[in-house]
Amino acid sequence: MSDEKRAVLPATATTGLRGASFAVVAVACLGAAACTGTPSRAAGQGATDAAQAERAVDGLLADYRGRVPGASVLVLRDGRPLLRRGYGLAVLEDGIKATPQTNYRLASVSKQFTAAAVLLLAQDGKLGLDDPVRRWLPSLPKACDAITLRQILSHQSGLIDYEDVMPASFDADAHQMHDRDVLAVLEGQDRTYFAPGSGYRYSNSGYSLLALVVAKASGRGFAEFLRERIFLPLGMRDTVAYERGVSSVAHRAYGYSYEHGRWQRTDQSPTSATLGDGGIYSSIDDLAKWDAALYDQRLLSDASRALAFAAHTPTDAPDVGYGYGWRVTGETLWHSGESMGFRNVIVRWPQRRLTVVVLSNRNDPEPYRMALKIGDLYLPGSPVRAH
Questions:
Q1: pTM (predicted TM-score)
Q2: Residues 349, 382: contact at Cβ < 8 Å?
Q3: Residue 161 DSSP code
Q4: Which of 180, 206, 209, 273 fits a disulfide with 152 by CB distance 3.0 to 4.6 angstroms?
């Protein structure tokens, strides 16, 4: 299960706990950088001083330090880590620190991997993006006849949200919902929110179904396909689509929520076992390898990457389009991920070869605005590159 039924806040908004303090710290640090009198400032351009930028990031992450649920933060330019560090704890009960190797449940950041799996199979000729979803999942009701894989990738399917119609019998322990259960629930929903292709509605249901399509078209389990075709070829050896009792998560962070005046473990929910919409665990170190692969054809062809990164539809947020597993805002490609006890985001400025990743194991705040503030610290040294 994942997140993001909520509309993305406007770019001028400040979000999350203590959002105002984040803004004050960022402005103060940026002001200090502007007053150093360095040659780069005199020239009006140049790289942000590394030490000042790091201090500014430390200020933005002040609430994540100490014996509290933490975060791992990565800034990449030209594939090189400008900042790579952990804050706070990955496991409160054992005092285990968050590090660059800590693996967090990505929640909806997982969707870019699900979309990549579909695109890989399209490259292989195993499926077509305009295939009706019922070609692969014929048990879906007739209302789904006109829904294509392409529409599901861009949230234009109109599929019913499984979270709204799932039976109460599912729980956070022994009887969690899986992708196959999403299909079973949707088999009883002979309706859609709108005619397929005529609107936009963010759909975890759709991405859970895509995981089943990948399994059927490839002839192997979804988690196995991701591992063999994406994670291992890219050297993402600790990244996993986690299946309880089947796989394990190395260097695992557990999720927490601040309730009744203290942090409490809230790592699992009834929908935490669905894979296609949000079940991948990864670290900032492994995501650096993923980011590198998005610039060339080592995994996806130029045509496939162009499809993934194009805004195929406007969303319900101003100035935000949706590609295949990516949101598109101005020059940025990004996606957040929010689920029980985790808040994550990856923001890419591909024309500047700049990327910011923030992974955290707490229920609040969402880190998108903070990632943009971190990006602002490094944008002066990241000019737009000629193609």
A1: 0.89
A2: yes
A3: P
A4: 206
Q: Give the pLDDT confidence score for residue 174 in this predicted structure.
A: 84
Strands 71-77 and 80-87: antiparallel
Q: Which two tokens stand for residue 267?
A: 């790592």
Q: Burial-class residue 77 by CB neighbours within 10 Å (0-12, 13-18, 19+).
A: middle
DSSP letters for 111-155: HHHHHHHHHHHHHTTS--TTSBHHHH-TTS-GGGTT-BHHHHHTT
The CA-atom distances, in angstroms, between 96 and each of 90, 242, 340, 375 are: 6, 21, 20, 28
Q: In what order do the strands lie in the sheet with 71-77?
A: 80-87, 71-77, 354-360, 342-349, 332-339, 327-329, 321-322, 313-314
Give 317-343 as a DSSP string. STT-EE-SS-EEETTEEEEEEEETTEE
For residue 177, what pLDDT band results from cuts at 50, 70 and 90?
A: very high
State pLDDT tens for residues 114-140: 999 999 999 999 999 999 999 999 999
CA distance 171 to 186: 19
The whole-angstrom distance between residue 282's C-alpha and the CA centroid of its chain comes to: 10
